[in-house]
Amino acid sequence: MRSSFKMLAVALLAATSFCTFAKAETVLRLDESPVGELDPAKASDYADSVLMFNVYDTLVIPKPGQPGYDPLLATGWETTGTTYTFKLRTDVKFQSGNPMTAEDVVFSLDRMKALGAGLSYLFENVEKAEAVGPTTVKFTLKEAYAPFVSSLTRLPIVDKKLVMANLGAGDGEMKDWGQGYLSTHGAGSGAYSVVSHNPQEETVMAKSATYFLGVPAKAPDTVRFRYGLEAATVRTLIAQGEHDISSQWLPPEVLKSLAAGGAQLLAEKGTTEFYIKMNTTKPPFDDVECRLAVSYAFDYETGVKMVAINDKVSQGSPATGAIPVGMLGSLPADQPIKRDMDKAKEHLAKCKYKPEDININVSWIGEVPLEERFALLMQANFTELGLKTQVKKLPWALFSEQVSKPENTPEISQVFVNTMSGDPDTLLYSMYHSSAAGTWMSPEYLKDSEVDALLQKGREASSDEERAKIYTDLNKRLIALAPSIFGQDQTAVFAASNRVSVPALSDPSKAYNLAGFGFTFRLMEMKE
Length: 528
Hints:
This protein has 528 residues and is of the alpha+beta class. The chain has helices at 2-21, 46-55, 102-115, 148-151, 160-164, 179-182, 231-239, 252-260, 288-297, 300-306, 341-350, 370-383, 396-402, 424-432, 449-460, 464-481, and strands spanning 27-32, 60-62, 69-71, 74-79, 83-88, 126-133, 136-141, 192-198, 202-207, 222-227, 264-278, 316-317, 359-365, 388-394, 412-418, 484-496, 500-501, 525-526. The strands form 6 sheets. It has a 4-stranded mixed β-sheet, with helices on one face. It has a 4-stranded antiparallel β-sheet with strand order 4-5-7-6, covered by helices on one side. A 4-stranded antiparallel β-sheet has the order 12-16-11-15.
């Protein structure tokens, strides 16, 4: 009996010692606006991007703190201008255990192009991808495309064997291309795997023990990524220590209150601009003079003040045109667009519509409360011109459906658009090329041959100097056409608990020029 008690005491001591020294599981809790799209061929929004950068990997990733791209799944590449040949790493395995090969890269591109959704437009110029060998993949382009390497940051590589084993009902050899399966499951090689996914509520992810680069011990073990939380809820959760990082859509006074209570403020800038979109297909904005009138009437300075959090941090800065300050082709920061009511009245006098006959619907996205303030600001500004204006709240799902047809698109919409790949092509082409109309990014339905030509030249030019000149000219042309009011350059500001350290969102030398990439969880550190 004494021996049994002695063994029990030793066991209890060992258990106590283990509990003392074992690392407690860390959980990162954050939120974004819905919907969280998990299928890599359909992902396009900010929440989708965060999922892609963690569940999947790409051939290249942006360099921290500077322009350019580093290889990730690739070891390097060569180009002739219309072909790009990538050598792949040989030590990468998908979360299923399947090794990554060139066939997976080819399959990922073919799948994205076949479905024609999400960011597939970035690869319209790719004629084909082929596996030259198990670890070599060759892309052949229809014509020279300068931003091609940057676009590859938006081609998540999927596990072909896993997807092929989970094809759903559909026509042809590929049936549904695995859409049913990939809408709820991950098939990537990323540092985090999907535990569960509800696109309207929450995605739960867990650290991968087999990630080829390794995941630091201080990175979060589990991530709970929630969607559509109300600002008041986020404020309460962070204050109570039950939430770690807010979305970028909190009103400035909520961010100010949280900062005063001890929360840290994280920031991402240089990739996104706030655009007030005008439907150019119907009155009154089918007339450029009316578009210029309201563009000059908008109170830009007040708009920037509305998003100030404190003397050092703001959610916006003055815009100089269609391209955020600091990006290739942008105009200097000391040339901000300003309100000018005299010019507004001059252009309105040239408009073919009488002011008393103009009735403008200004929409704002219900999930982004800040937009209501801009809508009310516009209403006040346009009233000064004698224009009737109604403010209308739209949920994101309804808005994105309405803008698919010009006749259903509001006269004015508000969106925040980022560069997608860090290159001005992926900011502007998807908004202003005549072939791109009908998405949430392009509710203007602009058709202008000069804009189309400049966008094409920007894709074909080989040197940064030549491309900078092209995009500067394009910028000036868009200002003259005024399909949008260029409201302000956005700084995405996130309130965060002190449990988490995010160097990419707090240290400019470690920041990325790709929106959302700062939320790469393996680069974060958690305190137990």
